[in-house]
Amino acid sequence: MRLCAYQPDIAPNLGAMIRLSACFGVPLDIIGPCGFPLSIKSLKRAAMDYADIADLTRHDSWQVFTAASAGRRLVLMTTKADATLWDFSFHPGDTLIMGRESAGVPEEVHNDCAAHVRLPMTGAARSLNVAMCAGMALSEALRQVR
After folding, report:
1. For position 65, what pLDDT does the model report?
2. For residue 93, is pLDDT > 90?
3. What are the C-alpha distances in Å from 75 to residues 47, 71, 78, 92?
4. For 98-142, what is the HEC assignment?
5. Distance between CA 32 and CA 85 in Å, rounded?
6. Residue 126 half-sphere exposure, CB side, CA atoms within 13 Å?
7. At residue 45, does pLDDT exceed 80?
8. Lowest mean pLDDT, pick from 64-73, 88-97, 122-131
9. Is omega for the bond preceding 8 within 30 degrees of 0, making it cis?
10. Per-residue pLDDT reduced to its tens digit, 3-22
11. Going from the N-terminus, what domains does the chain have, and what CATH number goes with each?
12. Which of 53, 98, 135, 143 has the most CB atoms less than 10 A away?
């Protein structure tokens, strides 16, 4: 199981995903470019000391990431999905992809993903914070494949 942040816009959200990755022992792929300078200094500020124990891999583009991820099922967490987190069956080799806070993912990325999953929500709310969504989705995926 892997977690992936696609072109994150907000450093503290990436920091929360780094902490999630470190605590759950799940590698985190970061696809650039980011909406902030992705440096050791920004990671330290956003992720505290968790960046030192997390398994992080940076990718310069979606194409570089997909080449490195050949053979893995890419599962996009998106509001534009029919399958809900509660009804979806995860596999041990899945990579959970989280889109940009400001724009999600482009159509190319959406189309390249084998599965699309949404968090079931009620009311007029559009979406949850991306790091909160990552935590919920990763927790459910790990529960299923434990």
Report:
1. 98
2. yes
3. 24, 13, 9, 12
4. ECECCCECCHHHHHHCCEEEECCCCCCCCCCCHHHHHHHHHHHHH
5. 26
6. 5
7. no
8. 122-131
9. no
10. 999 999 998 899 999 999 99
11. 2-145 (3.40.1280.10)
12. 98
Q: Which residues pair with 4 in a beta bridge?
A: 29, 97
CB 93 within 8 A of CB 1: yes
Tokens of 115: 């599965």
Distance (Å, whole) CA 106 – CA 34: 15
CA-closest candidate to residue 24, choices 46, 54, 51: 54
Task: Summarize pLDDT for 97-146 with one digit per residue, the tens.
Answer: 999 999 999 999 999 999 999 999 887 877 789 999 999 999 999 999 99
Q: Which two tokens stand for residue 127?
A: 């979406």
pTM of the model: 0.93
- CA end-to-end span of the chain: 11
